[in-house]
Amino acid sequence: MKIISVSNLNGYIKEKLDSDLLLGNLWVRGEISNFKHHSSGHMYFTLKDKTGAIRAVMFRSRNNSLFFEPKEGMAVIAKGYVSVYERDGIYQLYVEEMHQQGVGTLHVAYLQLKEKLEKEGLFEPGRKRPLPRFPQRIGVITSQTGAAVRDIVTVIHRRYPQAHIIIIPVAVQGDEAPGQICEGIRLANEMKNLDVLIVGRGGGSIEELWAFNTEVVARSIFASNIPVVSAVGHETDFTIADFVADMRAPTPSAAAEIVVPDFRDIQKNIDTLEQRMVLGMKGIIHKYSERVNSLTGSPAMKRPQDRLYRLMQDLDHLTRRMAQAAKLKLTEKKSCLALQVSRLDDMSPLATMKRGYSICRDNKGKVIKSIKEMRAGDTLEVIVADGSADCIVNNIKEGAYGHR
User: Fold this and answer.
1) What range does the domain containing 43 cover?
2) Strands across the sheet with 387-392, in order?
3) Whole-model pTM?
């Protein structure tokens, strides 16, 4: 017999529940009871029907995106997963998404398609394109008989009359509506000269708006090369088309206001910029006028030749200084050269010979420095200061200056 702790038992049950695929992602319909919105922001409540109940929790990070305020007794559809809160040993529904239950099957289908397309990335903010600032050609895909088209046209003409509106009439409710809306988007993209598309209709029930909750319309909007503004129903109505479109407008009239600027605001901005430009130019002109006046009043501008005369005088002065400096430098160099020449003359062999010395060379021109380099009978050349003589060696004597 194996005995385990309560914690281990709860952990084992949690592991089993967490590994169940059905319990990991499911929708639950029920009525809210025992609702408590904790100070932490988390919501704790029970979902119940006629015969059963389950505890539920929706953490703050999830309930921040709710479009309604949950209340006691409210019928809702909640998406989440079932797991065990190990501390208390109870299983509960961890709610990730919740919607008011209003239309049964249609609402469930809406939530399922929304979840599917969201996982595929059709709602990613990063893929949404900016709208052109000054559109010239605007495509409107809606019913040609409804109030929506009149509102859109009226607002665009009032705000930006230079825009050209191309209406592509389609059915906006009924079985044929999804196909016609898709075809309208395709035709608009084939025109290749539209700057932006408005796709939508006026308000209605969820059944009347259902064409804009279909997968084919969502994928057509996603595939459009032209930026799309969805304008479906009233401000409180949210359709799949709103999530896929590049921008959602709460109403058709609001869509018209979003896609075009108000030319009156543009004119005001132009007028303001013009005034600023004029004031700026006046300021620049005034500044340079004062500078010109200051320059024209200066002595240099009154007698510009004075500066030229002064520069010419400075040039003459510098020329004289340069000539004097060159003459002084030349005198110094001549004195230095004479001194060096005198020193060289003192060191010259000729100067030595003038004092009574001579140079003796053999018949090959080699200077005789020792008696060992000569023999009796040799013919030698004796060079003195003023000439030379050929001599024959008769006798060789050793010792300094020979022995006299």
Assistant:
1) 6-101
2) 359-361, 379-384, 387-392
3) 0.51
